[in-house]
What we know:
The structure holds two protein chains of two kinds. Chain A is mostly helical.
Amino acid sequence: MDWGFFAGTAIAGLLAGLMYALVAIGFVLIYKTSGVLNFAQGAMVLFAALTFVSLHEAGLAFWLAFLITLAAMIVLGILVEAFILRPLVNQPPITLFMATLGLSYVVEGTAQLMWGTQVHALDLGIKDTPLPIPDILVSRFDLFCASVASTLVVVLTLLFRYTRLGLAFRAAAEDQYAALNTGLRLPVIWAAVWAVAGFVALVTGLLWGARTGVQFSLSLVVLKSFPVLVLGGFDSIPGAIVGGLLIGLTETLAEVYIGPYVGGGIDEWIAYAVALVFLLIRPTGLFGQRSVERA
Amino acid sequence: MSHAPLLAAEDVEIAYDEAIFAVRRVSLLVHPGEVVALLGANGAGKSSLLRAVSNILHAQRGRVTHGRILYDGTSVAGSSTSRLVRRGLAQVLEGRHCFRHLSAEDNLLTGALGRGSSRLETRRDLEHVYALFPVIAEKRRVAAGLLSGGQQQMIAIGRALMARPRLLLLDEPSMGLAPIVVAEIFGRLARLNRDEGLAILIAEQNAAVALRHAHRGVVLENGIVAAAGTAEVLRSKDDIRAAYLGLGRANIQPVST
């Protein structure tokens, strides 16, 4: 066995996994704090990437385009709270899920109406070339994505653990009724968490967009994040990371080492097969919250 | 008392899902510095009334369909719960509703967050709550869900006190707790009332313990006021003791079997 090749493949898988983890984190944020499984996260990724790339192509500097897009995502968060979450407060989860399903079409449609449907190339200025390590192929771009993703995770963890907003997020995640009664302003918390999820969508959109081109299929990355969530647990950010890494690793290794025997194409479905097995043996995922209760 | 009432419920009627009436035409006053017990059996309308006062009824799909509730002279209907908390109206919910995965201290801090306290105020209020419930200070790093029922009740009360209330509402604080823990908690509440003049409205099924510490009592039955008066009068009236308070007639010995 060629260990250099194996290591290169494994690293590529892990790095790809971090990209899945990014999408999953957007889900976890919203699910954790408001109990809504936000199907529109993928549409938000598309919307953010398309907005950014169109502004950038129109001649705006990178940071200006980034900030304007971020502002747009925050406005989107506020609108979602005011027009979807607030009228549907206390409705069953399936109602809210259906609402986000509808929202995903509205957001996708709006993005394409505003910016058109053609594919945009996105260049973040990082070359997709291998690092000069003998025998092991590691792309600079993948490494860049990994460091951005890691930074994002650290920032989010600090936000949740050590800030007042983070405490409000955790309290609202735990018991909305008690949070309301305690005087926490749920509308503000929800708008804030959607804005944070919008920021995550923007980062995800830029990295994925640079890899695959900014196009409609970006919104389908959500489908890849479902197995990640099943593995890691729907309400755990570390779970999303570990789940993402495992899925990325499994996909790449399976494609390279098992693929040839079954004619390839394994990476299309292996993640879902793994998720299915996980659902049977550990439905809360690796890091999903079990109830904290005295026996 | 000659002061203007801190809380005035006037002719309040409450319905859930526009159809089921939980409270019909109930009136109630709480004056500054007063402890009032709201008594009655399960389903008498006590919780509904407290929810209406804190304006959280809508979260349970309920609505005030008649009458009005004034806190400190203004109607609560126009204020959000968070605004009411900021104005000094805090409630300890039925069933405690601690944030189970959050530490005891983080639970208390959410109370400060609800009021919008500064860091200095927050630190002072934390010390105040810890002085009142030393056992919570010992367990401050432990997840609330892992603590005993009594300790969770103390956290829930402490969380409400972090809002620096002028009127504290408590919904069934004795629920599921051992008598000795109930006595301890009511003792602390009585001390808060005595030392700091905190006005308290307690909804309780356990009439005996509630009337021991209250100045006045209001008995609800099927959504209407069945009796009201000072705690001594309610304690001594035989028909009320027998019918609503489950205390038995004072002058009749229970039949032994």
